[in-house]
Amino acid sequence: MPKLTINGQSIEVSANTTVLRAAEKLGIEIPTLCDHPALHPLGGCRLCLVEVKGAHTSQASCGLIATDGMEVTTESNQLTEERSEILEMLFANYVDAVYADGQSEETQFMRWINHYGIQKTPYAESQPRHKIDSDPHPMIWVDMNKCILCLRCVRACAEVQGRHVWEVNGRGHDSLISPSANASTMQDARCESCGACVAFCPTGALDNRMSMGLGQPDKLVTTTCSYCGVGCQFDLNVKDGKVIRVTSNPNAPVNGMALCVKGRYAYDYVHHTERVTKPRVRRYLLEGGEKVISQLVIRETSPNYLIPNHLTPNLWDWVEVEWDVALDIAARKLSEIKASRGADSIGVLTSAKCTNEENFLMNKFARQVVGTNNIDHCARL
Questions:
Q1: Is 8 in the same domain as 71?
Q2: I need a labelling partner for 328 at 20 to 30 A (CA). Which of 154, 174, 229, 253 fits?
Q3: Judging by beta carbons within 10 Å of its beta carbon (0-12, 13-18, 19+), is residue 290 exposed, middle or buried?
Q4: Residue 238 belongs to a domain with what CATH number?
């Protein structure tokens, strides 16, 4: 295990660890744009330059393997000058026409622009070179005028999602990231709408269409996705008490930065006006139970069945109750059915939105508590 020194601090790391990752372990932040812990190193932006004792030039720390006895400096006047020149060149081709007032969410790119005090130069682009909102994708906003060719979207789609939707076309100043395989749109290029390219983009060239113009959140709430039993985690971006976007949490133990289209974009149900937030039971179960319902003479063979006038239809209405009331009614009815008709007259239907542990408990409930093998699930998507 090589032992090196970074800014005077010693650290021992495992073999093949890069200087950038070693610095992170020490809590030392090195500027970077093209690098991401979930992606293979590229060394394209060169913003992560560091000085290594004995080397003639600055080195890109994202691809520099730590060796025993290495001495690294991450901040100096020379490094500041080199990083500023790199950012100035990248900023020259960056045009944000949509958020020209500066009200957009601060991206990783703009954070370093502001940190080093970079200003637009006379030769910088002032008008968009590419079409704004250039792709009709229903979830992802595309504005390549803010692209710096870090290739994180290309690599994320290939390495994380395995879809290879993005590729680089053209050369030099005319290089442009666009849908691959000669497709005209992202969806034509087999995009699954997972949003990984958006999550990895450091400039805002790719953004979540549903969140455009909603600003920055008041807080982040880490939670677990409710759509399946995998247990993916992410951060809910909450503003004024409402979810305005979902962002990947790199520390999520199951999924890391990866999410499916449901986890990333199907969160509008949280505030839907028809969302059921409390248990409900039929009104007749609260107003006389079986004694009332037994007065309804149901004749299956009669085509002209009518409810008697003294029994109003609102007996079938759903009524919100507390959990204890709903659970008591459910337990009583299940016990009565099992006692009168046997355990196999009961079936249990579980949900694919439950966790694996919850479905395991439902299995135990069906087979050991109720005593039936009649259990199925709804994963028919």
A1: yes
A2: 229
A3: exposed
A4: 2.20.25.90
Give the C-alpha separation, 150 to 202, whole Å.
8
Amino acid of residue 53: K
Q: Which of 206, 96, 97, 92 is closest to 151 using CA atoms?
A: 206
Range of the domain at 367: 342-381
Burial of 343 (0-12, 13-18, 19+ CB in 10 A): middle
Q: Are 249 and 259 in contact (CB under 8 A)?
A: no
**Half-sphere exposure of residue 293: CA atoms within 13 angstroms, side-chain side:** 12
Tokens of 381: 């998507």
Q: Are 47 and 68 found together in one domain?
A: yes
Please, are residues 16 and 65 in contact by the beta-carbon 8 Å criterion? yes
CB 278 within 8 A of CB 320: yes
Q: How many residues does the chain have?
A: 381
266 and 324 together in one domain: no
Beta bridge partner(s), residue 65 = 18
Give the tens place of pLDDT for each residue, 83-132. Answer: 999 999 999 999 988 765 555 568 999 999 999 999 988 888 888 999 99
- pTM, two decimals, is 0.82
Q: Of 17-26, 229-238, 322-331, 351-360, where does mean pLDDT reach its minimum?
A: 351-360
Q: 357 and 320 in one domain?
A: no
**What value does the mean pLDDT take over residues 340-362?**
90
Give the span between the Cα atoms of 144 and 180, in whole angstroms.
15
Q: Say which DSSP state 367 is in.
A: I
Report the number of distinct structural domains present in the chain.
4
Residue 350 lies in a domain: yes
Q: Confidence band (pLDDT; 50, 70, 90) for 300?
A: very low
* Contact partners, residue 328, CB within 8 Å, separation at least 6: none
Compare 182 and 169 and report the one with higher pLDDT.
169
Residues 6+ apart with CB under 8 A from 148: 33, 45, 90, 93, 94, 109, 202, 203, 205
